[in-house]
Design brief:
By secondary structure, this protein is an alpha/beta fold. Helix content is about 40%, strand content about 20%. The protein contains six helices and seven strands.
């Protein structure tokens, strides 16, 4: 049985991202997966990596619990909006505080290379946009996806990482949102 972890990076509980997370979860449960969730906005932690990698600070209990869920998961589902081309600040802070040397990756001594400590995991990024996905890719080079997919997840060994764009949110109606929710439900049943 596959262990799925849904990580919701939207800080507003009334956002469409929360509905997407719920529908993905329903689909995964229907497919008989073990499903856990992390709602980043509900965690109590300092999102600032105060000393960078020079000095380690203790993880707050919510981050310790979140890391245990990440280690246990076979498949990570990241759901977040695109804000100013990137991730919400709280989501970036969550990554900064948890995806650390010795946990998610390990630099090799006297080398520019590193070991990927999250090998064997897969991921799916579901991101909402207020512009067409083709425009986000063509004119902005999709910075949030590059950051999360390439510079974080693949850097740490998570592969493959699929991406699903949902939008344009701000001009969508209930009929369109229902189609997106049905699509995300189906993605949850695929367990890929």
């Amino acid at each position: 049985m596959k262990n799925i972890l849904i990580i919701n990076g939207h800080p507003n509980p009334s956002s469409f991202n929360f509905a997407l997370a719920e529908f993905y979860k329903k689909g995964a449960l229907e497919a008989k997966a073990n499903v856990e969730t992390i709602t980043i906005a509900n965690l109590k932690f300092n999102p600032n990596l105060i000393y960078g990698y020079q000095k380690r600070i203790d993880l707050e209990p919510d981050l310790v619990e979140a890391w245990e869920k990440i280690k246990k998961a076979d498949h990570l589902v990241w759901i977040h909006p695109v804000w100013w081309g990137g991730l919400p600040a709280i989501t970036k802070g969550f990554i900064d505080r948890l995806f650390l040397p010795g946990m998610a990756f390990q630099y090799r001594e006297n080398s520019v290379w590193w070991d990927k400590l999250l090998k064997g995991k897969t991921a799916h990024i579901i991101t909402t946009l207020d512009q067409p996905s083709w425009y986000y890719k063509l004119f902005f080079s999709r910075p949030s996806i590059n950051q999360l997919k390439k510079s974080t997840l693949e850097f740490c060994g998570v592969k493959p990482v699929r991406v699903t764009y949902v939008g344009i949110i701000k001009t969508s109606d209930e009929k369109q949102r229902k189609k997106w929710l049905d699509k995300v439900f189906q993605l949850g049943t695929l367990l890929k």
